[in-house]
């Protein structure tokens, strides 16, 4: 079992889905014209999450699926932004940039995880919202668990001070860098421009403008033993960087949007398939909200109840 590719995840199925007008300013993956909420749109998003959960379960991934019936949480389909879990039994709760997203943090989700997994500490960083410091979970940080490294693209949603605090507490080495997309705009979340799996990493290196920072990211990934699949800016725009590696019954899968997989070259596909199986999933309605399949998944790295804490991963000092 790879601690980088968990076999269990959390997903949230929204009943009142709509692209969030409060996040459109810096999330250029959303359509530029606001989309009016409608029952039909919400029904399609509900069906896409349902189908995605079924596809994951069919290959042996455990999906903890929670329904959201609230009308004021337009982005609840993206739970990876408000919490993360860790192999040493920790959970972290994160400060969210948009006030419209802060009620996504749900105690019932945490309580459900405690029934099956060992949770030793919950770090609650949501108080940082009072100081205007934001860090949106594994949207802001792409975590390399074996190497204890956090890759972070600076943005309104990823503040350096919050990164330093969280990484110090959780025992990760931060690598921060600035990005820009094809339009010269900073990328709002790190996990739309890079993905780090067990043996391979997909990363839009050309979006890291500073040569020194770009070299630091490449060097760190190569030192970890990862093969690098370099993505172009057009592929980034189609969510090719927004992927996640999961473990099923028959091995490891790269969960990727059906829209994104179409942009991969034959060479890139062959490169990836040396290590794992591609699992394209169609979520065009959810993608209107500016995120894709990786954003829809909060990975569970917690030890099962009865397992030794930190089993299979180093435990940082103080845990």
TrEMBL record:
It holds the Pfam family DDAH_eukar. InterPro entries: Amdntrnsf_FN0238. Gene3D superfamilies: L-arginine/glycine Amidinotransferase, Chain A. This is Amidinotransferase.
């Amino acid at each position: 079992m790879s601690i980088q590719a968990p076999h269990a995840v959390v997903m949230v199925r929204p009943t009142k889905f709509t692209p969030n007008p409060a996040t459109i300013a810096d999330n250029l993956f959303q359509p530029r014209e606001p989309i009016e909420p409608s029952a039909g749109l919400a029904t399609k998003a509900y069906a896409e999450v349902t189908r995605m959960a079924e596809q994951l379960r069919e290959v042996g991934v455990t999906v903890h699926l929670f329904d959201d019936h609230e009308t004021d949480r337009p982005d609840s389909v993206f739970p990876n932004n408000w919490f993360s879990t860790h192999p040493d039994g920790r959970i972290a709760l994160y400060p969210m940039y948009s006030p419209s997203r802060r009620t996504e943090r749900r105690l019932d989700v945490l309580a459900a995880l405690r029934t099956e997994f060992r949770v030793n500490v919950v770090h609650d960083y949501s108080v940082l919202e009072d100081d205007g410091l934001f860090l949106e979970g594994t949207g802001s940080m792409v975590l390399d668990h074996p190497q204890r490294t956090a890759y972070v693209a600076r943005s309104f949603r990823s503040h350096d001070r919050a990164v330093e605090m969280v990484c110090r507490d959780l025992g990760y080495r931060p690598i921060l860098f600035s990005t820009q997309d094809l339009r010269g705009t900073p990328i709002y979340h790190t996990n739309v421009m890079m993905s780090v799996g067990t043996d391979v990493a997909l990363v839009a290196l050309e979006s890291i403008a500073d040569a020194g920072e770009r070299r630091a990211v490449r060097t760190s990934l190569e030192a970890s033993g990862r093969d690098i699949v370099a993505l172009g800016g057009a592929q980034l725009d189609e969510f090719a960087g927004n992927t996640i590696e999961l473990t099923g019954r028959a091995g490891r899968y790269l969960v990727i949007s059906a829209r994104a997989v179409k942009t991969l070259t034959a060479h890139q596909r062959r490169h990836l398939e040396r290590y794992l199986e591609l699992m394209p999933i169609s979520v065009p309605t959810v993608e209107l909200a500016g995120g894709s399949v990786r954003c829809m998944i909060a990975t569970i790295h917690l030890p099962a109840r009865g397992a030794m804490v930190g089993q299979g991963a180093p435990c940082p000092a103080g845990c």
